[in-house]
Structures are given as structure tokens and as C-alpha cells.
Amino acid sequence: MGYFSYSFFFDTMGFMKYLDMKRTQSQIADEIKAIEEENAGLRKDIEAVRHDGATVEGLARDRLGMVREGETVFLFVPATHENGSPKERP
Predict the structure, then answer these.
(1) Backbone conformation region of residue 65, classed left if phi is above 0, alpha if psi is from -120 to 50, else beta
(2) Within a domain: residue 8?
(3) What is the residue range of 31's domain?
(4) CA-to-CA distance for 73 and 64, rounded, in angstroms?
(5) Buried-most residue among 14, 22, 52, 77 (CB within 10 A)?
(6) In the prediction, which pLDDT does 6 show?
(7) What is the structure's pLDDT at 69?
């Protein structure tokens, strides 16, 4: 009876191993759910880029610095000290 009890709880395929595997399964399931949610968001972004001109324009403006013809661009350069570090705003 003692060997059976030991084997049931501590053997390579015993109850403790089972609990560890269940915990690992739960962690992997959580990771899969998070990745599926991220993928759904990325698919939504892809569809917006494919079918929404405003999204494409926003990306072009933000990432590429593009402007429409006739627009005036104002570029504000932060003030710096002589050593190159930025000055604090008043």
C-alpha cells in the first residue's frame, strides 16, 4: 500500500505531475487567449488600412511626416542648453 501511495503522488506520472500539467495548461490557454485578442485587433487595423482613407492618411502623417499640398508645417524645436540637454519649460 505504501508504494502505491508514493507512486500515486510522486511518480513521473503521478498526481503532483498531473497538477503541474494542469497549471501549465491553464497558463498556455491564457497566453493563447491574449494572442488571439491581439490578432483580432491587428486584423481590425489591417481592414482599416485597406478600406479607410482617413486611416491611411493618419498613418502617412504620423509615421512618414507627410502633409497635404498647400498645408503649412510648423516645426517647434525644443530649446536646449549649451551642453545639448533640453531646457525645462517655465
Answers:
(1) left
(2) yes
(3) 2-64
(4) 14
(5) 14
(6) 63
(7) 93
20 vs 28: CA distance, rounded Å: 12
Q: How many structural domains are present in the chain?
A: 1
Distance CA 41, CA 80 (A): 40
Which H or E run contains 27? helix 15-51
Q: Is residue 75 part of a domain?
A: no
Q: Answer yes or no: is pLDDT of 28 > 90.
A: yes
Expressed in angstroms, the distance from the first to the final Cα of the chain is: 80
The answer to whether position 41 is within a domain reads yes
Q: Which three cell numbers stand for residue 78?
A: 525644443
Please, what is the average pLDDT of the chain? Answer: 85
Residue-wise pLDDT tens digits, 38-54: 999 999 999 999 999 99
The x, y and z cell numbers of residue 14, run together, are 503521478
pLDDT value, residue 18: 84
